[in-house]
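Quick one from the shared queue. A colleague (R.T.) flagged Aminopeptidase N as missing a structural entry in our internal table.

Convert sequence to structure tokens.
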Amino acid sequence: MNQHPPISKLKKSLFAIISISIRFVGAFTVPFDFQSRTTPHRQRYTSEQLTAKTICTFDDDDFAGTQGDWPYTAADLNRLDNSDDYVFYDTPRFVTHIDDSAISSLTRFYQQEFTSLNKESLDVLDLCSSWISHLPKDGITYGNVVGVGMNEQELASNEQLTNFYVQDLNKDPLLPQFEDNSFDVICNVVSVDYLTKPLEIFQEMHRILRPGGVSLMSFSNRCFPSKAIAMWLQADDIGRLTIVGSYYHYSAKWTSIEALDLKDMLPTPKRPSAGEIMKNPSLGLAWMNAAAAVAKNNQGDPMFAVKGEHHITTMANTTVVGESAAAHPPKKARTDDVVLPSVDKALNAALAAAMKANPPAPKEVRRVDYTPLPFKVTKVSLDFNIFERRTVVSSVLTVEKNDLATANDSNITNDDEDGLVLNGEEGGVALLALSVDGVDTLTPDDDYILKPGKLIIKAETLHRGASNLDGKMIVRTTVEIVPEDNTQLSGLYNDGTMYCTQCEAEGFRRITYYPDRPDNMATFERVRIEADGNKCPVLLSNGNLVEKGSCDDGREYAIWHDPFPKPSYLFALVAGDLGSIEDTFTTMSGRSVLLRFFSEHKNVGKLNYALESLKRAMQWDEETFGLEYDLDLFNVVAVESFNMGAMENKSLNVFNTSCVLTDPVTSSDAEYFRVEGIIGHEYFHNWTGNRVTCRDWFQLTLKEGLTVYRDQLFSGQVNNCASVTRIQNVLVVRGSQFQEDDGPMSHPIRPDSYIAMDNFYTSTVYRKGAEVIRMYDTILGTDGFRKGMDLYFKRHDGCAVTCDDFLAAMADANGVDLSQFARWYSTSGTPVVTYSSAFDQDSGLYQLTLSQSSRSEDPLFIPVAVGLIDKATGEEVVPTTVLQLKETSQTFEFSNLKGEVVASILRNFSAPVKIVSASGNVDEGDLAFLASCDTDGFNRWDSAQKLYEAAILKVINNVAHDDCLDRVIDTFRQTLKDEKISDDSIRAYALMLPSESTVAKAVDCIDPPAIHNARKHVKSTIARCVKDDLLRAYNDLTAAIDADGTTFNVDGLSVGRRRLRNVYLAYLCSICETGEEQREAADLATKHFNSATGMTDKLAAFNILASMSGEGESARDAAIEKFYNDANGDPLVINKWFSVQADASLPDVLDRVVNLASSHPDFTLKNPNRCRALVLTFAMNAAAFHAEDGRGYKFLGDMLDKLDKVNPIVAARTAASSLIGWKKYNEKRASLMKAQLERLKSMPNVSNDLLEIVTKGLK
């Protein structure tokens, strides 16, 4: 319709004539004097009638047309001055736009209306607010008083506002910062005439006003003509009242729309008689003053208002769930420097309070209970509106019936869960709105149920909504979260530098309500992020960037689309002020992919190596597995505070800074290779984890074990250092994984149950899982493994699958039966393979008997790689052969041998097992022989390690060890001088002694100080015997390194030289018993420290210096001070500084650590890297941590008590690696360790993460 809405019935309450049929045509005119115009038809009231008077009420039949029939055109809402309103209002005015009498009338009107609402406290929204709101100050209790206006200085000066937003309603009429039903009163003073989008504004007002609340739009006869809309200028007072009334009528279901005259017209006071004045002249003066005041009041500004009420819906026992804010997508935004209204009225507020007061008991999740979802989400749209200390997340979910679920096969545990189950942590996610398209009103218990951690929308409700949507259901939610308070770093959090997500495994439920499990793969069609443009100019999410732009108030937005279905754990969002570098990669099909790496601006110069590593990984995956990247953009972000090493979110990898930033000054060689490996790992997940993901979290090793194996292959092949890489990997397996197998947290690579899934990101799942994948390759061969991989992707691309599916692809592609091999997935513990041999000199027959024992009821399929070395010549007479051990015991025969041989067994660590002699004795002669002659690089190193270990154990047990030490020294010297060893890294590893933790696994009762002292003795003994050779070799390498100049390289030659020279340095400095030796060691280490051109050499020397005592103390203290000062605040270098001190071999190391934890300004439990650097490193410093007085245990207990409240994931992992192995220690230590576990278990509100570890540790 094009006509203005004439009133169809004559209103005779105060006026006889109403004229409103007006059209604006042509140029603007001002028909009257806004400053002096009077209203001739004003009624005079008595002093008892100083209240607002109704002029008329508006009914539906007073207007032509109904709600939605908006009659006004653009011309009606045009203005003389259409320039940016921000310019017009840029300068604060601090004036009132009505006179004192009008203000007084307005305040009394507010008092009358507010009182009539009869509420204990009122939440008020002042639209078009300024420096004063004219609200009554006495007799009214306010909750939130929020202003929305145009000038920040004026709003900040308004003492009645609890918070405010700078927003131009003519550009941005929507109010998404406010949830449905947020206010009791909405008022607007002398500004309704400036609104150019009144329809949208009045609709929003109705949405955010609570049922029973009132909207009060007041105006006078003053305005800025250039900014008022055209039809306002053409109308008289009655016309203007009708215009505002029509806004209510056409916009929403407003009721009791009423036009009011607010001005208090005072009667002229009675004049005293002449006689009275003669007797008392002051009476005359008082009368004159009173009469003047009345005249001033009655001649002042008129004041009108139009009132509308939000209709109250009366439904017994029904909670009306507000319309989702997703229906009101924010196009622009407000400033983010204020705290928004509270969420105490969230739909899940009562549940959150109940769970906080009485947390539910931990619930075990079992693999055998898995069933498909009855309903699945197939499409997702998300809106993130990020403000300081408040982020609003609106979601639109497309829901469909799951074809994989049958009537008797769903995830239903009781009749209440027969619908769509959405996971959400009510303690951090406030559910503000919930709706199902096609369903008018959702009723608690009837339509949906809130349970701890769950929102269940019943099937009947979904079906009602689907009846008009072709079987698809649309569910909308709006939630509020506070990322700044999220110290768990799971979900969306702010670490002080940026907003960032970590959703694996179950972090998405800390962002919004969603089926947060890996088998729900949905297309995230639209993710819109909006934030302050100054604080967060970079806005990233998964997939490809669709649109970005600027909003009002300096805010920015970006919209992302990911075409590939993914589970929620792969969702990612980053928002912050970040710098970046970029490059491109051309895929094998010719597509150009943009690669971008982001970090804090100060770290941008440390991103180049990671970017080059990514390009190498992309090319390697194409060449090795034929796997090409599938999008046009690949983003990587470096985050300082991150629980994991990195996360493979689709096209937006998020990395711990320690796993992506490198430069020679701050990064060691080990960190360079670690960065390259992890970059490869996360990229390789694009196919093994993202395109094909795991069905449930029990299948985690499907993606992690497979991808770890792939990154191990990558690291070994691209750097041409397969043997070195294999040694490094096996050190981890035999260290943390074998320890895990032997403790209370022992579990198969596919666990059977969990309480907190984060506890099963373990060395077993990752490292042993990778060894299981490696065994496929060993058994099937490289070509057979590739065929299995190809079939796996062909069958399951875009699916969530199981370990059984992977095994089936390997078996089917190669036509082999791998059913026995499947037992690896369900067997915990480390299998043991024993060996014995016999040789018949006459026949030349060599027999090798292998036997296996494990926790599996039936024998495992164990590939054992074996080679035979002629004992006389040292030549390899049988090359590597893979023996398939499938029985409890098998004998394998090798014929036609010319002489006695030594078997090199479990070459390249072909299976994750322990290999021991059937006799239980260590043949030190054979070990020394293999350490010198084995042609398999891995086994040559391994034999030396076992020989060194044998010597250390003899020292611990105080048994004769001279002969053993002689063999050790001979082997060491031979390795030191062997010219056939061309790789300095191999030589370095062959010279290193096994770690204290490795030796600890070989004893029945662990005595950490004894192990430390025995290892130290063996090391110094070797060093003394070969000191001259060591020093000569050290000096030769120093000269070679110096000859290369200062150019830093991380190639194999350069890294090998540095690694070997630092091994020599450690041996030379181990000679430190006398004062002179201590000074000599300190001088050598200090020279090494000061002359270092990179972190590798500097850190090696610092590790040595940090443990110096006696005559070396001053050098130690100087190095500690210099290392810290040289760090210049770099977080990763400061982490090293903490870590080295925590690992020092000093009698007072615990006191030093306690002091650092309690008083050093750089220490915090909120940063996982910093926490691990000090607390976890000290807990791994076995000799100090396990001091028999138990002080180390108490320190850790104190730290875990605090840490669990900050970050339960890190707390649980720290406890798991430190306290739960108490049964391996003597009675005194065990009792003290157990006491700390019991203390942790009894803590109030202990997290499920920590409780699960502690409970298992106490068994």
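Residues 181 and 210 are 4 Å apart (CA to CA).
The first strand starts at residue 53 and ends at 58.
Added to the table.
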